[in-house]
Design goal:
The protein is an alpha/beta fold. The chain folds into 2 domains: 3-169 and 360-373, Glycogen Phosphorylase B (Rossmann fold), CATH 3.40.50; 177-358, Rossmann fold (3-Layer(aba) Sandwich). The chain has helices spanning 21-35, 49-56, 71-85, 98-108, 129-136, 146-155, 182-188, 210-224, 241-253, 268-273, 289-296, 327-339, 341-358, 361-373; strands at 9-14, 39-45, 60-65, 89-92, 113-118, 140-143, 163-165, 196-201, 228-233, 259-263, 277-280, 301-304, 320-322. The strands form 2 sheets. Strands 3-2-1-4-5-6-7 form a 7-stranded parallel beta sheet, with helices on both faces. Strand 4, helix 4 and strand 5 form a beta-alpha-beta unit. Helix 3 packs across helix 4, helix 8 packs across helix 12 (327-339) and helix 11 crosses helix 13 (341-358). The relative contact order is 0.11. The mean pLDDT is 91.
Length: 374
């Protein structure tokens, strides 16, 4: 039997206290592994949104991780799980989980392979004795972009041959423009059918570029106010409601009458389906899953040309890259796309093809399994 077809017993750990793309990457991996016949157990934080989301996906789920003061308790719980489940693989999506996983593995004497996916860059050096002890037990580290890979090598006690580039993937069956009726979705959301929709999607948090987007919208409106409509999809992160209020107030100060704030939406494919252009002005994005989703939906982007974005968007082939924090450049790129329908179509086709060839979740999960079974 080919090694990729061997049944794997895997524990997927997501001990983060937050909720977002990082945690969903763990859930999606667990779901795909389970559907391929592997035995998967998802370990998460007690009473977390992740726990309920995993159960909605029919995943076998055990809440283990607690706050730092309960570190010993978490280690004991995980130790018991490892002894009973006897996993071949433990895969965590948060480096902080290593403080629980490595001691639990040591206490059980388990030979399970340990993998860590790094989704976020770190500015803190982790090359002290304690971190060397933790990372020595990690078999491989997956970096979601070259930007993150460089960060791992600069900050973590890891050999270069053990740091593997493995981006996040997307479900191309879900993110497929052929599935969605653009006109109908526009009507349902009271969006003008006779205007181009220029949108931004993501959490309202500093660094995502909402200020640049609104200032670019002001510039665009100088000549195109009767041709375009701006769509802001997303809401504030926990504890950042004041920032969302600031962004909404800025839209009023700039007299942007042709704009809609939708708040939090789970129907990302539907929201992308009504967009003609995606703005992605994030200042320092580790990867940019929204860009991938837009590419799959055939929405040409105008994006900040830095960090993890460079692994996704090919400038002048699948979209346009601009200088981060530059509203004038962002507006110029969007205007270029507004004025050139053929360019938009060219980017849309190339973007969908790139998503299919490089970021299909089935391709990514097979590469993951190859690393699990090597």
């Amino acid at each position: 039997m080919h090694k990729n077809k061997e049944k794997i017993k895997a524990v997927i750990c997501c001990g983060s206290v937050s909720w977002g793309g990082l945690e969903m990457a763990g859930v999606e991996s667990a779901v795909k592994l389970s559907k391929q016949g592997h035995e998967v157990l998802l370990v998460c934080r007690v009473n977390s949104k992740l726990e309920s989301e995993a159960k909605l996906n029919s995943l076998k789920t055990l809440p283990v991780f607690s706050k730092d003061i309960m570190l010993v308790s978490s280690i004991i719980k995980l130790k018991k799980i490892i002894k009973e489940f006897k996993p071949d693989v433990i895969h965590t999506h948060l480096s902080h989980d290593l403080w629980v996983i490595v001691p639990a593995l040591s206490l059980t004497g388990s030979n399970a392979k340990l993998f860590l996916t790094k989704h976020m860059a770190s500015g803190v050096k982790k090359k002290d004795l304690f971190h060397k002890f933790l990372y020595k037990r990690v078999n491989k580290i997956f970096a979601v972009s070259n930007y993150i890979k460089e960060s791992v090598l600069n900050t973590c006690p890891a050999a270069e041959e053990n740091v593997i580039l493995l981006p996040d993937g997307i479900d191309l069956q879900k993110f497929n423009p052929a599935l969605y009726n653009k006109s109908q979705i526009k009507k349902q959301n009271r969006l003008p059918e006779d205007r181009m929709i220029i949108g931004i999607i993501g959490r309202m948090t500093p660094g995502k570029g909402h200020e640049e987007f609104l200032n670019a919208a002001k510039i665009i409106n100088e000549n195109y106010s009767d041709k375009v409509f701006f769509l802001v999809v997303g809401s504030a992160s926990f504890g950042e409601d004041d920032y969302e209020t600031k962004i909404r107030n800025l839209a009023e100060e700039l007299n942007l009458a042709n704009i809609l704030f939708t708040g939090y939406r789970k129907d990302t494919p539907e929201m992308l389906s009504v967009m003609d252009i995606l703005a992605f002005p994030s200042h320092n994005e580790s990867f940019g899953i929204t860009l991938l989703e837009a590419m799959a939906m055939g929405v040409p982007p105008a994006a900040s040309g830095n960090a993890g974005v460079l692994d996704i968007v090919i400038n002048n082939e699948t979209g346009l890259l601009v200088e981060p924090k530059n509203s004038v450049e962002l507006a110029g790129a969007i205007i270029k796309l507004i004025n050139d329908e053929e360019l938009r179509k060219k980017f849309a086709k190339a973007a969908r093809n790139r998503a299919e060839q490089e970021f299909d979740f089935n391709i990514i999960i097979n590469r993951l399994i190859e690393n699990y079974t090597q």
